[in-house]
Design a protein that fits this description.
- The complex is a heterodimer of chains A (114) and B (115).
- Chain A has no helices and 11 strands.
- With 114 residues, chain A is an all-beta fold.
- In chain A, strands 2, 4, 5, 6, 9, 10 and 11 form a 7-stranded mixed beta sheet that branches. A 4-stranded antiparallel beta sheet of chain A has the order 1-3-8-7, with no helix packed on it.
- The termini of chain A are far apart.
- The radius of gyration of chain B is 14 Å and the shape is globular.
- Classes of the chains: A mainly beta (114), B mainly beta (115).
- At the A-B interface, strand 5 and strand 10 of A face strand 5 and strand 10 of B.
């Protein structure tokens, strides 16, 4: 158990509204990631963080922003949600230390944008 | 760019049959890491194995075994004597180095094990 929680676990929202998903970890991992999972696409990286206030883009970052003001929390924000952002979102950490280490995933957040 | 191909999309077997899930990868990196993850119907992603590019030893863990062959860029996963609890989506993934320092997933294989 890598000590990762995600909130909310389920959310339904309307197009154009802002949405923030939270990932929380309890074991002081340096690297944290946000992925989205869609049918036929596997998992795709949205953004990742390599420390407090240090973030970088993944392959599908358009329409998303992230913030990491504390080691334990990594927030994913959809500034103005669109139906194409309906997906399951997973947070992950690398353990034990580095970016090349194994990634462990949180339980996921199912987001529906109407 | 790196790529992971899982050509099989859905496999259905009867309990106790052996089944092999194929994974073929593409990368120009000399150092890279390969992974398998399991996603049961409950939705969580469960780490199964990690293999480094410089270690071609095959691995066996109970009913699970993995065959890593650099010559054919494959990292196949075999479940021996399958059980209903093995029903899940299985993802192969590749982590490269340098500009490819990210985890690239295949599209997954849905395995159904019938009683």
């Amino acid at each position: 158990d890598a000590g990762i929680t995600q909130s909310p676990r389920h959310k339904v929202t309307e197009t154009g509204t802002p949405v923030t998903l939270r990932c929380h970890q309890t074991e002081n991992h340096r690297y944290m990631y946000w992925y989205r999972q869609d049918p036929g696409h596997g998992l795709r990286l949205i953004h990742y963080s390599y420390g407090v206030k240090d973030t970088d883009k993944g392959e599908v970052s358009d329409g998303y922003s992230v913030s990491r003001s504390k080691t334990e929390d990594f927030l994913l924000t959809l500034e103005s949600a669109t139906s194409s952002q309906t997906s399951v979102y997973f947070c992950a950490i690398s353990e034990p230390i580095g970016r090349w280490d194994t990634q462990y995933f949180g339980p996921g957040t199912r987001l529906t944008v109407l | 760019a790196q790529k992971v191909t899982q050509a099989q999309t859905e496999i259905s077997v009867v309990e106790k049959e052996d089944v092999t899930l194929d994974c073929v990868y593409e990368t120009r990196d000399t150092t890279y890491y390969l992974f398998w993850y399991k996603q049961p119907p409950s939705g969580e992603l469960v780490f199964l194995i990690r293999r480094n590019s410089f270690d071609e030893q095959n691995e066996i863990s109970g009913r699970y075994s993995w065959n890593f062959q650099k010559s054919t860029s494959s990292f196949n996963f075999t479940i021996t004597a399958s059980q209903v609890v093995d029903s899940a989506v299985y993802f192969c993934a590749l982590f490269g180095t340098g500009a490819n320092s990210k985890l690239t997933f295949g599209k997954g294989i849905t395995l159904s094990v019938r009683p």
